[in-house]
Structure formats: C-alpha cells, structure tokens
Design brief:
It is a single chain. By secondary structure, this protein is an alpha/beta fold. It contains 16 helices and 25 strands. Among the domains are: 184 residues, ANL, N-terminal domain (Rossmann fold, 3-Layer(aba) Sandwich); 98 residues, GMP Synthetase, Chain A, domain 3 (2-Layer Sandwich).
C-alpha cells in the first residue's frame, strides 16, 4: 500500500526559493578576486540564479548539458550552483590546482559546453581552450568592463554581460529528483580522474543531513565560512545546507592565508568555519604570532585529512573553539562521519574525550558503514580490529560518470580505500589507506604516477612512492629508488627529471636510494615494509 502524502521531488531549486522567501535579507559576503568585499542577500542570489537559468536557455543548453566552473568560493559561483542545477543542467566544478593537461582532459571527458572561470584562472584557460573543442562559450566571472581584450580565447564573454540583462523571473522546471545536478572529478583513485555524478535527491538529502545538530549544527543564527573550496565536493555541501537553514554565508575567494581568513572571521561574525587541516594551520600560526583571539567562532569542521591532535588542542584550549573532525569522500557527497560526543562521554576525563575527538566520528544517518577483513567477512566493532571500510547510502556513488573504472561496488557497498576501526559506540577511526595515493594539503598525488616518472629515468631500476607525515601539508611524497647496476644518479638529478611532468606541488620532496625495494610473493612492492624501513626517516627542511 502506498502512502498518501504529496509526491514533490527533492530539487535544488526548492532550496534557493526557500532561502529567498524565508531568509530573503540573510547576507552573503564574498571576498572578490579584486580584493574588496561584496555583499548581498539570499533574495539577490535567487534573483541572479534565475538570470543564470535564463542565460543558459538563451545559450541553447539542453537539459543535462554540463557547465564547468573554475572558480574560488564567491557569490557568482553560488549563483551558478543554483542556476545551472535548478534549470536541469549539470554543474561541473573543476579543480584549478590540477595540471592544465588534466583540466583539458576533464573538460573534454565531461563534455562541458560552457566553462565559467575566475579572473585568476585566465592563464589556465589561455593554455587549455584550444584543447577543449566541446566548449562553445567561455565566461569570465567579472564585470563587462573588466574583460581583457586580445586573449586569443574564442567566444569569451564576461559573466555580467552574459546574464546581467536577463529577466530575474524563471519558472524552475519540475523533474525526477534522481536527475543529475552536479559532478566532481576525483584523483583519489588510480588511473584517470573519475567523476561522481550527484543527483538532486542525493544533494538535498545530504544538505538536510549536514545541517543536523550532531553534524554541522547549522541554523539561521549562524554565519558560515566554507574555506573548503566549492571545487572540492561542492564545498562539503555547505552552500545547499546554508540555503536550507538560512545561515549567512561568508566566502574567502582566493585569499586563504591566515591573516585574510582571520580578518574575515572577525569582521563578519563567523560562528562556524570548515576546511582541511592545512588552512587551519596557517590561521593558527598567524593568530599565535600576533596574539589574536576569536570573538564569535564557536566551532570548526576539519576534514579531508586526519586532524592532528595539536590542532584540536590549540582550537579547544587556546581559543575555546570546538573541533568537529569529519571524514568523507568525493564519492560520498562528501559527508560520512562526524565526531561529536554523546552525553555519556561528557563525563569522561579530558584526555579520554580527546582520544574520541581524534577519531573520524560517528556515521551520519543515511550512511551505512562496515569494516571487512581480507576474506570479505565483516569485522567486530571493538575499536581495535582494523579492516577495509565500506559504505552505502543515498548519497554514496553507485557508478562513476560514463562507467569509468567499471563497477565500483562490492555486493552493493562502496569500498572507500580507507582502513579503519569502529568502536562499540560507532566511532570510526582511520588507521591506514589501502589506495595508492597521497594527500598533500587536501589534494591528491598519485603514487603510481610518481613511480612511473622515476622509472622512466634510464638509471632507475625500481621506484616506490610513499607519503611521509608533514606538519603543514599533512603528507608529502618521497620516492624510494633502486638503481640499475653500474648506474649513477643524484637526488637533484632525479627531482629535476620531474619538471614539467607533474605539477610542482606533486614533485616528491626527497629521494631515498636503497639497494633493493622489498617485494612480495607476487612481485608487488611492499609499501608497508618500505614504511617500516623508513620509520626513522625525516623529511628535509623546506
Ligand atoms: P576526497 O575524495 O578527495 O575528498 O578524499 C577522500 C579521502 O580523503 C578519504 O577516503 C580519506 O582517505 C581521506 N580523508 C578524508 N577525511 C579524512 C579524515 N578526517 N581523516 C583521515 N583521512 C581523511
């Protein structure tokens, strides 16, 4: 028997219309690439999102067509979030930190018809446009009079000239909530980047879940600063959750240094901020050096990489700011777990509480998780037994865009590539990573790519890339190398060999020469053994 309730699809356009109607005067503040602060309201976001939708109609984009963005966190990017998805097109957020060749590959693979970009990224677009024949229009996110001449980019127009004259009324289409809304490529897997393709349903359900008290605890009384970029899994869904709750949004643009972020937090009365450990490290360093305090910030969501204990202590003990340690993935929209204590834990001694806070946290309702052993059998939730972490749920990937990489699921579950324990209270803790990638400052580096480049050097017999803990970047790659008999090679020669082959920040920090790389029975490099052998190793000072 079916229920007898109204069947309204869960659509992203509902979120922005809700924010406009119920929180119309709620503020959105953005630091622009020009350096100044731009202010307007949720009502304005809605009006200009409708203008974007009209402009997309005028550009002849069909339902399902992809619109790429290469942009910082800011108000125009927010308008594209709602205008593109709300009008049944697919928003494709692109990571500008990738190599130009990778960006061109991604734009072509996604078949973007329009690409919108911040002025900062003009040099990237100049380098890639000729390799993206599918793009019919390039749109620079700026005023008409700021558009530079003679860029050599065909069909280049300013955002304001493109959408500024369009009507601000639009009848948002109503369609199946399973329709695609946005996509994000991840390099956190081996092989070519793969895209998670989110739906309206997955995005709206995730937005509700993210706002829950034991998750980000968002409300109309909050001013939220997503330092996590809008090109990293939709800024962890914060733009949608902010519209759903009517929270004030504060966008940092490209100014992620400690001083700029601190000034924004204080100037705009930010109550909650979210980002990867590296940005918080820069903020804390600035605050310590200048003996500063927060006056409004109460909590910060830290995820993307493990949050170091010293950071949790610094926020809590020095600044009275609660750290909410979060874990998730591009493939999970991204939120999976968040670390908030239960009532019974509040009676624990501070050091016991800290042990819990260091864990990645409890599953958010909607995410089902389990740990399994090598035989595929589920392991006990005893806080000690570690196994491969599997997840499933309505905002977890079922397949990558265009079926890239084959079926990613095992028996209906998504293997995360993380290794974890889960305790009896359901607190998950990442203990290792089974996927062969390294995360530096929140960005992925493929170990295999680093190894392949080293092995292309005529003097190298074998190379293994491993991540080493780093105080600022969380992890940095080094390459362990054995040479061919009689061959000679210096550290600097090999590091120079990486120039032009990977982005500068992906180049290993060091080379360690060994006589032989330990191999397993099947000839596979034993990374665990290599890491053991390097237990006393220290990264060179920058
Ligand atoms: P991405 O898809 O780029 O968001 O990366 C997701 C991966 O980042 C996860 O599978 C983990 O390997 C890692 N990760 C994310 N959050 C955390 C965390 N809090 N602690 C440790 N690793 C994390």
């Amino acid at each position: 028997m079916l229920g007898l309730m109204q069947s309204h699809p869960l659509l992203i356009s509902n979120l922005i219309e809700f924010a406009a109607r119920h929180h119309g005067d709620g503020e959105i503040v953005s630091r622009r690439t020009e350096g100044d602060l731009h202010r307007y309201t949720w009502k304005d976001v809605a009006a200009r999102s409708r203008q974007v939708a009209n402009a997309l109609d005028a550009s002849g984009l069909a339902a399902g067509d992809r619109v790429g963005t290469l942009a910082w966190n800011g108000y125009r990017h927010l308008e594209l979030y709602f205008g593109v998805s709300g009008s049944e097109r697919v928003l494709h957020t692109i990571n500008p930190r990738l190599l130009p060749e990778q960006i061109a590959w991604i734009v072509s693979h996604a078949e973007d018809r329009i690409v919108c970009f911040d002025t900062t990224f003009l040099p990237i677009i100049k380098g890639v446009h000729a390799h993206c024949p599918n793009v019919q229009q390039w749109i620079m996110l700026c005023d008409a009079d700021k558009l530079p001449g003679d860029t050599g980019i065909p069909n280049l127009v300013s955002y304001e000239a493109w959408m500024g004259q369009q009507p601000s009324t639009y009848a948002w289409p109503v369609f199946d909530e399973n329709t695609a809304s946005s996509m994000c490529y991840t390099s956190g897997t081996t092989g070519n980047p793969k895209a998670a393709l989110y739906s309206h349903r997955s995005t709206v359900l995730h937005a509700y879940a993210a706002a829950l008290p034991d998750v980000m605890n968002l409300s109309a009384r909050d001013a939220v600063l997503p330092v996590v970029p809008m090109f990293h899994v939709n800024a962890w869904g914060i733009p949608y959750s902010a519209a759903l709750t009517g929270a004030k949004l504060v966008f940092p643009g490209g100014a992620l240094d400690g001083k700029s972020v601190y000034e924004l937090i204080e100037g705009e009365g930010v109550t909650m901020a979210a980002g990867v450990p590296t940005v918080w490290q820069m903020l804390l360093t600035h605050m310590q050096a200048n003996q500063l305090k927060f006056s409004t910030l109460t909590r910060t969501v830290i995820g993307g990489s493990a949050c170091p204990p010293a950071m949790i202590h610094a926020f809590q003990d020095n600044y009275n700011v609660e750290v909410l340690h979060a874990w998730g993935m591009t493939e999970m929209s991204p939120l999976g777990t968040l670390c908030t204590l239960k009532e019974k834990h509040r009676k624990l001694a501070p050091e016991e509480q800290m042990k819990l806070r260091l864990k990645q946290g409890r599953a958010i309702c909607g995410v089902d998780m389990k740990i399994v052993g090598d035989d595929g059998q589920e392991l006990a939730w005893d806080g000690a037994t570690a196994g491969d972490l599997y997840v499933r749920g309505p905002w977890v990937v079922a397949s990558y865009f265009k079926g890239e990489g084959g079926d990613p699921l095992k028996g209906g579950w998504f293997p995360t590539g993380d290794v974890a324990t889960i305790d009896a209270d359901g607190f998950m803790q990442i203990t290792d990573r089974s996927k062969d990638v390294i995360k530096s400052g929140g960005e992925w580096i493929s170990s295999i790519d680093i190894e392949n480049i080293a092995m292309a050097h005529p003097a190298v017999a074998m190379a293994a890339c491993v991540g080493m803990p780093h105080p600022k970047w969380d992890e940095r790659p080094i390459v362990v190398v054995s040479l061919k008999p009689g061959a000679e090679l210096t550290r600097d020669e090999l590091l120079q060999f990486y120039e032009g082959k990977v982005a500068k920040w992906q180049t290993p920090d060091d080379v360690v020469f060994v006589d032989a790389i330990p191999l397993g029975a099947t000839g596979k490099m034993l990374k665990t053994k290599i890491r053991q052998q390097l237990s006393d190793y220290k990264l060179p000072a920058a």
